[in-house]
Amino acid sequence: NNYLGLSSHPEVIRAAVEALEKFGAGLSSVRFICGTQSIHKDLEEKIARFHQREDAILYASCFDANAGIFEALLTPEDAVLSDELNHASIIDGIRLCKANKYRYKHMDMQDLEAKLQDAQKHRLRLVATDGAFSMDGDIAPLREICQLAQKYDALVFIDECHATGFLGPNGRGTDELLGVMDKVTIINSTLGKALGGAAGGYTTGPKPLIDLLRQRSRPYLFSNSLPPAVVGCASKALDLLMESNAIAQSMAAKTQRFRSKMTAAGFTISGKDHPICPVMLGDARLAAVMAEDMLNRGIYVIGFSYPVVPKGKARIRVQISAVHSDEDIDRCVEAFTEVGRKHGALP
Ligand code: PLP
């Protein structure tokens, strides 16, 4: 998930080394005891600014951010409405809370509306969705979700792990891409993918919500503070993205090149406009042997089959990165074409 190639960016590495030298290997403490240094506060402020939100709170991972938010925010009088294909960490976070739970069909707005109608009897409604779904490379219909949320007085939560840094004109994410930055209330995302790829996660949104999480969110309260080197990487990655949108933008053209050339070659690529490009093959064995042959040609792609994806929907997931050259992408398409013909995936 090194979407922007920032994990090996010289300035990101230098920032990590500087933070390590200045602040040491770690804080040996949770945040509220003695694990908060200026770099943690600066990074939280920077994350909020990047997303144009009021405040942000750091976690050891986005898994933790998702595990900590629903229980802290929702009571048994509330309701949470979750896309059936949401990430495992959202599902686990929801399991931990006592709110009334609704699971709507994947990106199905009719089903979401029916569930929102039923949920009117509850005090507060929260719609939770991945901004971009990593298995299929599809993007949540956030405009429609926000319209429904407005109609039925609900809050919107998005997990932006596969969007932060590169979706939208300035890489702010799915909400920027779809023009609803002012309508999504809560964003959870990771520092472990496009933003330097080290580790860490966060929640960003209204200040009262972040204040509440600092008081109540268990993975924040009871887990060690992010190590300085990790904070240094993420902080520099955000600086680079806020200085210019050139890195974020380079992604879209490359994704388009791969998707259109593969489609022209006869492959079916799931999703739309996302650098996760699942080459749909159906058969689990075919996906495994083709991925192995691709690796033999020097191209590192992974075959996914049941239980990670539904039966009969095996695929090879290709992820395009901003550091791939056009030649890399063309070579990958050529290799897929050769390997596909060899194994009967193409005529
Ligand atoms: N949410 C989504 C959609 C993810 O893809 C991931 C990571 O795979 C996570 C949450 C967890 O992020 P982290 O690796 O920071 O725990």
From TrEMBL:
Catalyzed reaction equations: glycine + acetyl-CoA = (2S)-2-amino-3-oxobutanoate + CoA
Catalytic class of the enzyme: transferase
The entry's keywords: Acyltransferase, Pyridoxal phosphate, Transferase, Transit peptide
Every Aminotransferase class I/classII large domain range: 1-336
EC code(s) of this entry: 2.3.1.29
GO molecular function, one term: glycine C-acetyltransferase activity
A Gene Ontology BP annotation from the UniProt entry: L-threonine catabolic process
Pfam families attached to this UniProt entry: Aminotran_1_2 (PF00155)
UniProt cofactor(s): pyridoxal 5'-phosphate
Record-linked InterPro entries: 2am3keto_CoA_ligase (IPR011282), Aminotrans_II_pyridoxalP_BS (IPR001917), Aminotransferase_I/II_large (IPR004839), AON_synthase_class-II (IPR050087), PyrdxlP-dep_Trfase (IPR015424), PyrdxlP-dep_Trfase_major (IPR015421), PyrdxlP-dep_Trfase_small (IPR015422)
Family that this chain belongs to: Belongs to the class-II pyridoxal-phosphate-dependent aminotransferase family.
PANTHER family, sorted: 2-AMINO-3-KETOBUTYRATE COENZYME A LIGASE, MITOCHONDRIAL (PTHR13693:SF102), CLASS II AMINOTRANSFERASE/8-AMINO-7-OXONONANOATE SYNTHASE (PTHR13693)
Protein name per UniProt: 2-amino-3-ketobutyrate coenzyme A ligase, mitochondrial
Protein source organism: Chaetura pelagica (Chimney swift)
